[in-house]
Design brief:
- Chain B: This is 3-phenylpropionate/cinnamic acid dioxygenase small subunit.
- Chain B: Keywords: Dioxygenase, Oxidoreductase.
- Chain B: Belongs to the bacterial ring-hydroxylating dioxygenase beta subunit family.
- Chain B: GO terms for molecular function: dioxygenase activity.
- The structure holds two protein chains of two kinds.
- Chain A has 14 helices and 22 strands.
- By secondary structure, chain A is an alpha+beta fold.
- Chain A starts with 9 loop residues before the first helix and ends with a helix.
- Chain B contains three helices and six strands, in the order H-H-E-E-H-E-E-E-E.
- Chain B is globular, with a radius of gyration of 16 Å.
- Classes of the chains: A alpha+beta, B alpha+beta.
- At the A-B interface, strand 13, helix 8, helix 12 and helix 13 of A face strand 2 and helix 3 of B.
- The complex binds FE2/S2 (inorganic) cluster and fe (ii) ion.
- FE2/S2 (inorganic) cluster binds next to loops of chain A.
Chain lengths: 424, 162
């Protein structure tokens, strides 16, 4: 970090990020990474859970907001809390189990016990405090929590704008994304987790990068069926990328799969013929069969919510920064809560095929991200180019700026927000 | 329980799964593909302890066609994460014959796999559960389940066969 430009002020940030390009130090400077944790991850809304992961009172899961370990809980009144996983006595974590069900979190060090809402309930041998221990002020540190349609976000920032405003035009796309559960409640079906030795923003860029798809995922396209291959011929389908404000964007790869409630008359794809038969045999009427089958393949777009969530086809992609050159990625498979087992299993098999550390897609993504991090060590004065399709941006129906499907507009949008927060 | 140290069956099955390991490490994929029954699955679960693999998310849940695709991907030369394919060396040990009725045997062992690729070395440790069918002519894999010790934590990209 010899050439760190920090302390951060407007001029140094401006020297690193221009509207159409950025410096490779964005991926490699450890001091900049620390600034990002405090200026971005501690200041804006961070996705922490889907409500189905903590469906019932007493359910909890571990997560992170920036580098800070948190626990997402649902209390007895069904209220969701996001609590810093740090005992108020001497800082031990009070939970180290990914997910589960409990009445309280008891610190293993000296036994302080916290309720599901974080309040301090028990202190062993408390005579030594002579009744002066201010229990009311010693609950687990609690974050602001808001949710939109089951997506749970948290922030350390009491002054952050309301979540609905932060999401803005992205809400329309969340609504469309949720149609993939075909009127059943959307539920998390399990997740793949993997790490890659690169900066978190490399992954952030990727979810809005259709340009790489036919190249990096050529092997996937070569081994998949011809229908799927045709579906993924995304460069010739009239798809687009749209700026949704606040760093969010949507990349539409398959325009025909934007609204899963439309086009139910279309022929059932050959690859889903057996599934359709199975659903009919279970007694579902034809409209329902068609809705479920159309939903099974997921949506035709990736919605990118700055800074850490991608709502992508049929899964959530969550990025978790670990250090300047390490990032964890979670691919959460989604399904139909209480829906037909055959449909959910089809979902699982599709997920296994492409996603995760042993999928036919993710390892290739991971490899090129790794290459970016390695390459960024060289050519310090060279720019990372983000200018693709800058010259032919248009304005879409909703008044949002659009580029073609392989446009780097989504990256430009994200870096604009990055810059705004880093300079604030 | 008395344990026989003279089980021919155990030696026979160990020899068979060592052959499988050797074929994977030495990229003899056609021979490897021929070692399976037609309905066999190769499974790498995510959650420890799961047995209903079909209803759960796995890292891999491969039937014959998926195994073939996995091989094709490694050999195609167009997959950036498998060009080159990682070099692997796996060691199988601590064998235990769980059941054997003469036609189907269940064998469990540990596997320690070392991967080397692009200057980096990684290791994956796992319990492996084999279901092996005996036909008149040969032994065949009917199911192989790899239970990675860290399956429910973050893994690296694995563009080869565990
Ligand atoms: S550190 Fe938690 S009770 Fe002491
Ligand atoms: Fe990709």
């Amino acid at each position: 970090m010899s050439n760190s430009l920090l302390p951060v002020d407007g001029s140094s940030i401006d020297a690193m990020v221009k509207p159409d390009r950025a410096k490779g130090t964005l991926y490699t400077d450890p001091a900049l990474f620390n600034e990002e944790m405090s200026r971005i991850f501690a200041k804006t809304w961070i996705w922490v859970a889907h409500e189905s992961e903590i469906a019932n009172p007493g359910d909890y899961k571990m997560a992170s907001v920036g580098l800070e370990p948190v626990i997402v809980t649902r209390d007895r009144k069904s209220q969701i809390h996001v609590l810093v996983n740090r005992c108020r006595h001497r800082a031990a974590t009070v939970c180290e189990v990914h997910k589960g069900k409990t009445n309280s979190f008891v610190c293993p060090y000296h036994g302080w016990a916290y309720a599901l809402d974080g309040s301090l309930r028990g202190v062993p041998y408390d005579e030594s405090y002579a009744g002066k221990l201010e229990r009311g002020n010693l609950g687990l540190k609690s974050l602001r929590v808001e949710q939109y349609r089951g997506l749970v976000f948290a922030t350390f920032n009491e002054d952050a704008e309301p979540l609905v405003d932060f999401l803005g035009p992205a809400r329309k796309w969340i609504d469309l994304f949720l149609k993939q559960s075909a009127d059943y409640p959307l539920v998390a079906l399990g997740e793949h987790k993997f790490v890659f030795p690169g900066n978190w923003k490399i992954q952030l860029e990727n979810t809005t990068d259709a340009y790489h798809f036919p190249l990096v995922h050529k092997t996937f396209l070569n081994v998949t069926d011809s229908e799927t291959e045709e579906l993924f011929d995304i460069m010739n389908k009239g798809g687009w990328v749209e700026d949704l404000g606040n760093g969010h964007s949507v990349m539409v790869m398959m325009p025909e799969l934007v609204d899963l409630e439309e086009d139910l008359e279309a022929p059932i794809p050959h690859k889903f013929a057996d599934l359709a038969e199975e659903l009919r045999a279970e007694g579902h009427d034809e409209t329902k069969v068609r809705r479920i089958v159309r939903a099974v393949g997921g949506t035709g777009f990736n919605l990118n919510l700055f800074p850490n969530l991608g709502c992508s086809a049929a899964f959530f992609r969550v990025l978790q920064p670990i250090s300047v050159n390490a990032t964890e990625v979670r691919h959460i498979a989604l399904g139909m809560g209480g829906g037909p087992a055959a449909a959910n299993q089809a979902r699982l098999r599709i997920h296994e095929f492409f996603q995760g550390p042993m999928g036919f897609g993710s390892p290739d993504d991971s490899e090129v991200w790794d290459r970016v991090q390695h390459g960024a060590q060289g050519g310090g004065d060279l720019w990372i180019m983000l200018n693709r399709s800058l010259e032919n941006e248009t304005v879409g129906e909703d008044g949002q700026v659009r580029g073609d499907v392989s446009s780097e507009l989504g990256m430009r949008t994200a870096y604009r927000q990055w810059k705004k927060l880093m300079e604030a | 329980m008395a344990v026989s140290t003279k089980s021919d069956a155990l030696l026979e099955l160990m020899t068979f799964v060592w052959l499988e390991a050797d074929r994977l490490d030495h990229a003899q994929y056609d021979d490897w593909l021929a070692m399976w029954t037609p309905q066999a699955r190769y499974i790498v679960p995510v959650e420890p302890g799961v047995t209903d693999y079909e209803a759960h998310l796995n890292y891999a849940y491969d039937d014959h066609s998926m195994r073939q695709k996995r091989v094709e991907r490694m050999l195609s030369g167009v997959s950036v994460s498998a060009s080159p394919v990682a070099r692997t060396i796996r060691s199988l040990s601590r064998f235990r014959l769980l059941s054997d009725d003469g036609t189907t045997a269940e064998l469990r062992c540990m596997q320690h796999l070392t991967e080397f690729r692009r200057g980096r070395e990684r290791t994956y440790s796992a319990d492996v559960e084999f279901r092996i069918k005996r036909t008149a002519a040969e032994l065949l894999l009917d199911q192989k389940v790899i239970r990675l010790i860290n399956a429910d934590h973050a893994l690296g990209a694995i563009s080869y066969i565990l």
